[in-house]
Design brief:
Elements lengths: L4 H5 L7 H15 L8 H17 L2 H8 L15 E4 L6 E5 L2 E4 L4 H8 L3 E5 L13 E5 L4 E7 L1 H6 L1 E6 L5 E6 L8 E4 L15 E7 L6 E3 L2 E8 L1 H6 L1 E7 L2 E7 L8 E4 L5 E2 L2 E2 L2 E7 L7 H14 L10
Parallel strand pairs: 6-10, 12-18
Antiparallel strand pairs: 1-2, 2-3, 4-5, 7-8, 9-10, 11-12, 13-14, 15-18, 16-17
Helix pairs in contact: 2-3
């Protein structure tokens, strides 16, 4: 990916977390390889944006990158060391913030240079790739692979399973955990690039985009919806069948309900771990499609003795 993840997403370093998420979604919707087959530039833009989003969406990792503690791939940056020979002899030393120390063996140097992903193990003699003085071979973790996946609103809320096609044509099963939010990333351990020198494989990072729903919206773990009710249900109250993410339930409408009133269905929201949100139902009074003579006459008489002004004390 680019050395500058902010540039890969087209945002400034002062961008909010929401700005970063929106920038990634915009690139994913225009540059995904499935939408641009045979376009290497689009594939490169998407890959860079996915890697940048994976780094910057976590405020802690973003802070570490901004401070120079990790690089754009998320790897630890090696501690800077300054080498020199003393006049008293040829023994090499290095200087850190802790002062001058002896090198000992070179494994510490290679470990620092390659970060946490590098490990040394004993290998056969020879000068092949990855060979080090003394016959040792570097073991390095493979690169992470980045993918994007769009799932339905209900599938993200209640969980499910999806398959994605890998670049080589193989299928990868992705378990969608319940309570997954838009922009979150699923990590599949060991499903990324192969390791080097016997090192472990990288991970597959699947960033999820949640599709909109025709009826529901979501606020954290709460589900929001609007419920149309009739004039008589608003005045007299009653039981009304109401959709939830788990199926229909009976909602009690109190007498004298107004449009805009919010009723709460406890425990009918999104579940994540041992937490579960509520469903917030906003009532909307809908007049009948046709005002017949009976209804018209009833309200004409009712108005004469029961007129009221709901705008009094509310509007300027």
């Amino acid at each position: 990916m680019s050395d500058d993840p902010y540039a890969a997403l087209g945002v400034a370093k002062t961008a909010t977390q929401d700005d970063i998420r929106k920038a990634y979604k915009k690139i994913a919707k225009t540059s995904h390889p499935d939408l641009n087959p045979g376009d290497p530039d689009a594939a490169a833009r998407f890959k860079a944006a996915a890697a940048a989003h994976d780094l910057l969406k976590d405020p802690e990792r973003r802070g570490r990158f901004d401070r120079g503690e990790i690089d754009s791939s998320g790897q630890e940056r090696p501690e800077r060391k300054f080498y020199r020979e003393y006049a008293e002899g040829p023994e090499a030393t290095y200087h850190t913030s802790r002062g001058y120390e002896d090198f000992g063996d070179f494994s510490d140097v290679f470990s620092d240079l390659f970060g946490r992903g590098a490990r040394a193990r004993q290998g056969g003699k020879g000068g092949g790739a990855g060979a080090r003085p003394g016959g040792e071979t570097l073991r390095m973790r493979g690169q992470d692979a980045h993918y994007t996946l769009e799932v339905g609103f209900l599938e993200a809320a209640t969980g499910g399973s999806r398959r994605i096609t890998m670049p080589g044509g193989s299928l990868l099963e992705v378990k969608v955990p319940e309570g997954l939010a838009d922009g979150q990333t699923i990590r599949l351990r060991g499903k990324g690039g192969p390791g080097f020198g016997g090192g472990p494989a990288g991970d597959a990072l699947v960033t999820v985009t949640v599709a909109a729903h025709d009826y529901f919206t979501r606020d954290g773990l709460d589900i929001l919806c609007e419920l149309p009710i009739t004039l008589d249900e608003a005045v007299l109250g009653g039981k009304v069948a109401t959709p939830t993410i788990d199926g229909r339930v009976s909602l009690t409408i109190p007498k004298g309900a107004s449009s805009g009133r919010v009723l709460r269905l406890r425990g009918k929201g999104v579940k994540r771990g041992d937490q579960r949100g509520d469903q917030l139902v906003t009532l909307k009074i809908v007049a009948p499609p046709t005002i017949d003579a009976d209804l018209d006459g009833f309200f004409e008489e009712w108005r004469k003795t029961h007129a009221y002004d709901p705008r009094r004390g509310v509007l300027p």
